[in-house]
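User: Please predict the structure of the protein below. I'd like the answer in structure-token form so I can feed it into my own downstream comparison script.

Assistant: Understood. Taking the following sequence of 872 residues as input:
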Amino acid sequence: EMAAGSEDRPDVAELLPVDRFLALLDLVPPETAVVVAAEEDVEPALRDHWDDVCAAFHDTDAHHLYVKPEAILEALDTRAGVRLSSISGDQPIEVRAQAADFAARTLKAAEPELEKLVRSGYTTLVTWPQRGGGERAAYNLARLRASWDTGDGGGLIFAEANLRDGFIAPGLKLAVVPEHRLLHRRKAAMAPARRGRGLLRSFTDLRTGDIVVHEDHGVARFAGFDTKSVAGVTRDYLELEFQGSDKVFMPVEQLAKISRYMGAGSGNPTLSKLGGKSWETLKARARRAAHDLAGELLNLYAERRRRRGHAFPPDTDWVREFEEQFPYQETSDQREAIDQVKGDMESERPMDRLICGDVGYGKTEVALRAAFKAAEAGKQVLVLVPTTILAQQHFGTFSERLRDYPITVEHVSRFLSSAQQREAIKRFSEGKVDILIGTHRILSRDVRAKELGLLIVDEEQRFGVKQKELLRQLKLKVDVISMSATPIPRTLQMSMAGIRDISVIETPPEGRRPVKNYVGEYDEQLVKQALEREHQRGGQAFFLHNRVEDIEETAERLRALCPALRFEVAHGQMDETTLEERMMGFVRGNADVLVSTSIIESGIDIPQANTLIVDRADLFGLSQLYQIRGRVGRSRERAYAYLLYPSAAALTKEAADRLSALSDYTELGAGFKVAMRDLELRGAGSLLGDEQSGHVAALGFELYMQMLDEAVREMGGEEEGEELPEPVRLDVNVDAYVPTDYIPYEQAKVDVHRRIAGSREVADLEELRVELVDRFGEMPEPLSNLIALQQARIKLGQAGARVVTFRGGRLSVTPIELDSVRARKLRQDIPGVLYESGRSQLSLRVPDDPAQRFPAVVRAADALLAVQREAA
């Protein structure tokens, strides 16, 4: 019982009912070949893991359960026959080579370059990160490749490999070209409202026993998956329990119709009764209410659209040079957010974009690039932050990054004298300061910009009503970027409805590791061990005690507990000078432990501080706890967070739910999930107002938001934008399900089905296939069929098909509209294809073997799409 649901408990190994443990190498036969990969990383990884093991126990007997690093390294010295390393002491081999960068828009445009290499005798290796992409490219180039006169030893090879860069080496007659160097495709941005709704669905986890909403049948309880054979075909079905003993077994293809219930309050709703008209009546009422609310939202939206903002010019050489100086590799999410911000700035409509991403994930770099673009174009920038410490931090970051450019950065905070603040404000009003950073002080009437073009708001949720009203007035005039790790529900709702655009950065920086959590009762010995361990590895720690009246007493108690450590106290009621001195002293390493109130929640960035202890964690909100936990884990070192409460008996249900939720979200980049979970725990009614809360309670937040989204689009007269095609009905007699012996975990099954059903691109499914093989091993045929079915749906849906049947070795697709020219071209590209114009039906013979059948269907769909586009 103690171990149940405790995968992340650091002491769970103590419960293992084993008397004697053996090391892996002790069990491996002596003749077994042992390969050490990335040899230079092995020892640091072993020592890192040993630190984690030592941290997991209240005593020092970790060696009873685990082998020390020294023992493992000694065994590897004698057992490892092959060692792979990127660092070698041998004489390197020098090869002259040039970059392989074709920058073609399509495979057809890349053909001449590939042909030139092959004819010149080069062995040309083109790599694709997913096998399917390489197979399709090889198929499309097969006829052309057969006509090439290859030089001595030349040839074209396609392989599955995720390479960052390629090369062309004349001396070796070898060319290696990654797919992204062969083809440079611009990624189409999704419509903001559609992106928002997709985020809401994908970030809301679904577990067995959860209350869900089915669009057609109403509120039910999700009872899990059931694998059933119907008419000789085995598939997975979702089991939904309704009022009474009614059940519905729903095909997984309809998973998009299901959403997790989030009501107006924190209680569970009454389950719906199957049949009758009550559910349709509830939906009709809610749809009318959504229509009324949509009118109010559209007034705000229309006000923004009516006002013309400043359209910034495209990137200049200076902007590109500035971006190239970024010392790190941007993550894909970060790059996408930057592109979206620039697109907004270059349009005439005033930007209002929310950047949601965890602390340290690169939101500031997005803001910096936007600020540089604005300043370089002659506009001024205001950067608004909630705390003085954060203002100082941003001032240091902006000044450092912009020091080589003629852009002036100033800041206004209580750490400056009144005369210094007045001088900075005066120079800003005269246009002599390009970027002004400060707290709510910069919203005062005396702060007037000469040519304001951009407002950046960090942690918008921390500002009060008065400041938000001033912000609202500014937003109508200039471009605005808001940044948050855990946006408040109201901000989420505006983003989901498409009134505010949203970019989510959820990919962690390279080398970042999740924070190790411990949630439990306060234990002085645990506190002592955690603080001393952090000190022993050369780091610093935070001890958060959120009561000013006895914080000094707490610090004294800690000093007595750990006399070898240096403690410093900081809280918001100190005078500015003392607070600054103590905070800056801690940053410089003058103290080992900072005992503070929640003033550390935002702004303080100390990479060497990697242990956090929160006293009375039960008194904090979920998003606030997540934000506080983000103070540690900002470097490559493993970080630890201890969330402590006085006793389990005194813990309220709400507090227990919050702490449990934080334990659930230990992965990197979980800030958006935490915001959604916070929304669920609080209830979603209040964010839409009292008038709407009844409808939210009846239908659930997601379905209501879907109705609101549709009403906004309908009343705004907008086209639907880039929607998923209507679902394609695939009538094929193949087994397609997730075998329990392959993925035995219910939650993982839910995740796999949701990702398959929600995929818009074949590349997403290829990525999922690679991930599943990596996690669970070789994929069984039923799951491979399930993924292949969705691939066929996506491709054929893009071609306009709605019904696909497979009988007697022939595949029939309807409706497909082709004129005689297109039909003739398709027959040339796909031998054996038949097209009946009267029935708008396309048919072709495909292999009986499912492993060959679905790739053939996808290739046929590709050819059909190509014919449609060429003719258009």
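That's the full token string. The chain is about 40% helix and 15% strand.
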